[in-house]
Design goal:
The protein is of the alpha+beta class and about 300 residues long. It contains nine helices and eight strands. It has helices at about 5-15, 20-40, 65-85, 85-95, 145-150, 170-190, 215-240, 245-255, 275-299, and strands at about 45-50, 100-105, 110-115, 120-125, 130, 150-155, 160-165, 195-200. Pathway: Capsule biogenesis; capsule polysaccharide biosynthesis.
Length: about 300
């Protein structure tokens, strides 16, 4: 029998197993949703924006011209490499592990007053810097771990670029993004001999995960399990070589269809031999007939 299915036969298979296909597709969707929701750990993302803009001191005029802006845009590609360098991320790792103390009062120099005779009189004594321990969370992250977390993105012809950090902890992602931006801003003057970077937006902890995509996993589970179920049923139909209709007999063997015999159920304990009860009834019937004939003869 030819195993090539026509579209009509294919549609017949779908109709025949429609509810099974729907049921398995729903099972697949539930499985995909469960994996995305309860098996895969969610990943959170935070970003801080930075602006590359040459200050007035770096140009001959107070207003930066178009060429300066284009030069700043071209520098973004260089800044991307500098941010993920071991120099910057190494400092970030140290500061995350040992947060700087909070400055309560800045140090002040002593103030003296010069009298008419030339002597100096102390007006305000010097004040030492007063600090308190930082309330920032300490993180133990290596440079390689930071490199795997940090990505840089920018738009074409834009002087703004973003430092994106992904982590399983939303607070960690925000803290790392802010620390990378602060360290890079401090170091850019030593790298490029100019200070043309400023922080536009600080990163904030985002409670909404960016991955896994629950809708995508649900759709993938529905399509995959539904497709595999349909494929199994299709192969099963192709592998079935039994004759299902009289037309197939005519096509395969070239015989003329003379009729159809209905299904006959098998009869249990069928036997052509007469039973003992039947023999007794026959003998009794034969005896009654002989008696009747004898009475007729006597009359």
């Amino acid at each position: 029998m030819n195993n090539v299915l026509e579209l009509r036969q294919l549609w017949h298979i779908i109709q025949k197993h429609f509810f099974a296909l729907i049921f398995m597709a729903i099972i697949g969707a539930c499985a995909g949703y469960g994996v995305a929701k309860f098996v895969i750990a969610p990943t959170y993302s935070s970003a801080t924006s930075m602006l590359v803009n040459r200050s007035a001191d770096d140009t001959s005029t107070a207003t930066a011209n178009l060429s300066d802006q284009q030069a700043d845009v071209q520098l973004i590609n260089t800044y991307k490499n500098l941010i993920i360098s071991s120099n910057v991320l190494g400092t970030v790792s140290d500061k995350l592990e040992n947060p700087a103390p909070i400055v309560v009062q800045k140090a002040k120099d002593a103030v003296y007053e010069t009298l008419a005779d030339g002597t100096r009189r102390l007006v305000t004594p010097a004040q030492k810097e007063i600090t308190k321990p930082s309330n920032k969370t300490k993180y133990h992250l290596s440079v390689d771990e930071l490199k795997s977390m940090v990505t840089i993105s920018s738009q074409q012809n834009s002087q703004v670029f973003s430092i994106n950090v992904k982590s399983k902890d939303p607070k960690l992602a925000a803290d790392v993004a802010n620390e990378v931006a602060d360290v890079f801003k401090d170091k850019i003057g030593g790298f490029m001999k100019i200070n043309n970077v400023s922080i536009v937006d600080s990163a904030k902890a985002n409670k909404k995960p960016v991955s896994p995509n629950t809708k995508l996993f649900t759709l993938a589970g529905l399509v995959v399990l539904g497709g595999l179920t349909f494929l199994y049923m299709l192969i099963k139909e192709l592998a079935d070589t039994t004759i299902k209709s009289p037309d197939e007999v005519s096509q395969l063997f070239g015989l003329t269809n003379l009729g159809v015999i209905g299904h006959v159920k098998p009869i249990k304990n069928f036997s052509m031999a007469p039973s003992s009860t039947t023999s007794v009834k026959i003998n009794q019937s034969s005896g009654a007939q002989r008696s009747r004939l004898s009475r007729l003869d006597r009359e």
